[in-house]
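User: Could you check the structure of this?
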Amino acid sequence: MDVVKTVSILSRNHAKVFLRFYSNKQSEHLLKYRPSSLPPSDEDLERLRNFISKRRKLFVLSGAGLSTESGIPDYRSKDVGLYARTNHKPMQHQDFVKSADKRKIYWARSYLGWAKYDAWKPNAAHVKLAAMEKDGRVEWHTTQNVDGLMVKAGAEQLTELHGQMRRVVCMRCNGLLDRNVMQKDMDALNKHWSAEVLGYGPDADVFIREEDVIDFNVPACRKCGGDLKPNVTFFGDNVPRSKVTFVRSIVDKCDGVLVVGSSLHVWSGYRFITQAHELGVPIAIVNVGETRADKFAAVKIDALCTDVFRAIE
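Assistant: Sure, the predicted structure tokens are below.
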């Protein structure tokens, strides 16, 4: 929805009503995918403050729970994650690379979901973590998220472990393309195509009817005509070894680990926490619900990330 154009054709009074309606809809969407949680206690916040204040080389590992409060759906949040509310499954790496039909389904759904996904903004926790980096309190941040919101928040000492949705890679020539450029290519090829969005999933995915995909056209690489793939690690694929080696080297030198918004269900991130534990590095966790590393944690706060980081000075 183009708010500016819509408002420009409304009367002043109607515009005010429309903007209130739009704002309310945005707020409803934010709440829809945010898990419920009690606020953090003063005691827990003080323990986390003390933990952070004693660190000089803090390593941060973040996950989907950091971004659900920006409105982005995730997979595993209790009651509101994809697995809790639907029977949809994420795209698997082998399905995508081997099947043109699977790629077509993926890109049709992503095409419809991209505008909303691209518009999401960092929340208070993203902003605070980026500020902690600038203040020298965070040595390095590794995120499992592919939404690019830590980059938008200003983080620079950052590894995007699973890649980023805003980049597309050619599976033939390995050339990179901006995702918004591909969106324009899809616009040009699908001027008369449309489909009803039935729901929203993580990572710019939406749910549509299978028959609506038939007439969708997928653009090819501008350089070589090859098939395009989002530059992310799909389920069933492996994180590039060079990234793993680099992050392990950071963990070797850190004096504390802060996990933010991750259940650590996936090995790609959990491996760094087990490494830290084996090295005797203290670990703090902020996440709604249990994590695989609760048994290792010196500090664990079961609360929303924004509630916690708004309160951290």
